[in-house]
Amino acid sequence: MFVRKMFIAGMLLVSVLVLATGCSTATGAGSAATPPNRSITVVGMGKAYGTPDVANVTIGVETSDESVQKAVDDNAAKMTDIIAALKDLGIAGKDIQTSNFSVWAEREPQRLEVEGAEGPVTYRVNNQVSVKVRDLGLLGDVLDQVVAAGANNIYGIGFSVDDPTDLQAEARANAVEDARARAESLAELNGVQVGDVLSISEVITGAGPVYERAAAAVPYGAGAPIEPGELEVQMSVQITYAIQ
Q1: Please, what CATH class does the domain formed by 39-51+163-243 belong to?
Q2: Calpha distance 199→239 (Å, rounded)
Q3: CA-CA-CA-CA torsion for 75, 80, 82, 87, nearest 10 degrees?
Q4: Which pLDDT score is estimated for 18?
Q5: The dihedral sign for the CA sequence 142, 145, 150, 154
Q6: H or E segment at 140?
Q7: Do residues 93 and 40 make contact, with C-beta atoms less than 8 angstroms apart?
Q8: Angle at 129 between CA 160 and CA 226, to 5 degrees
Q9: Quick check: do 39-51+163-243 and 54-108+119-160 share a fold?
């Protein structure tokens, strides 16, 4: 009996505590909330321009034969000559990387209209290497020499800078300046003033900030004329300013 009374008393105490907590919460909800920070958030964009010092090109050789082994052997011999020509021009082994090797069969249609007959099979072999040319003065000769060595496929050439750090820093500084100008313009339109920086972050988009920009053609070496163009580095930052 005593235990039962103690149990009932404990339950009553818990109920009183729950009611008290609810009243306290309700009172807090009715009090004035802290007003949110007044701020302006903008995205600033900045650019910087520089001269490329590295070229990236994909060089390939494709061979074909009715014998798959002969097609592979012919392709291997030509690619060996291409790689040797690249190294003779001073391209380091670390800057030559196989990017594709494929073998497939193509069946030619039978010339004679014989039902059920099939034409001969031709096997094709494609081998590609990605090459980084660190001396743009060699680029024209590189293209000429690899064609002479047997390359019959040369894919898009891309230009970049080996170390874009300085250009990125310049573009980033321009982005911060642009963000400030945007914030001040918005503040003026709304009759307020820009205060301290509350937060800042760099906006990263795409595969990278560097891309080619057209410029005048420049012949490099004694080989094919090359247009290295001009590189544009674009950076973006998001900044939140306090409103005064």
Answers
A1: alpha beta
A2: 6
A3: 160
A4: 35
A5: positive
A6: helix 139-149
A7: no
A8: 45
A9: no
| Spatial distance between the Cα atoms of 61 and 102, rounded to a whole number of angstroms | 11
Angle CA 226–228–229, to nearest 5: 130
What phi and psi values does residue 70 have, to the nearest 5 degrees?
-70, -40
| Integer-rounded Cα radius of gyration of the chain | 35
Q: What's the average model confidence in pLDDT over 209-226? A: 46
How far apart (Å, rounded) are the C-alpha atoms in residues 207 and 222?
34
* Residue carrying structure tokens 């690619």: 79
For residues 218 and 159, is the Cβ–Cβ distance under 8 A?
Answer: no
- CATH homologous superfamily of 54-108+119-160 equals Protein of unknown function (DUF541), domain 2 (3.30.70.2970)
* Rounded Cα gap, residues 213 and 149, in angstroms: 31
Binning pLDDT at 50, 70 and 90, where does residue 228 land? confident
- d(CA 81, CA 229) in angstroms, rounded, equals 30
Structure tokens belonging to residue 213: 């920009």
Segment 114-171, tens digit of pLDDT: 555 667 899 999 999 999 999 998 999 999 999 999 999 998 789 999 999 999 999 9
Paired tokens of 196: 């301290």
In degrees rounded to 5, what are phi and psi of residue 26?
A: -65, -40
Would you list the domain boundaries of the chain? 39-51+163-243, 54-108+119-160
Q: What is the mean pLDDT of residues 175-200?
A: 96
Question: CB–CB of 136/6 below 8 Å?
Answer: no
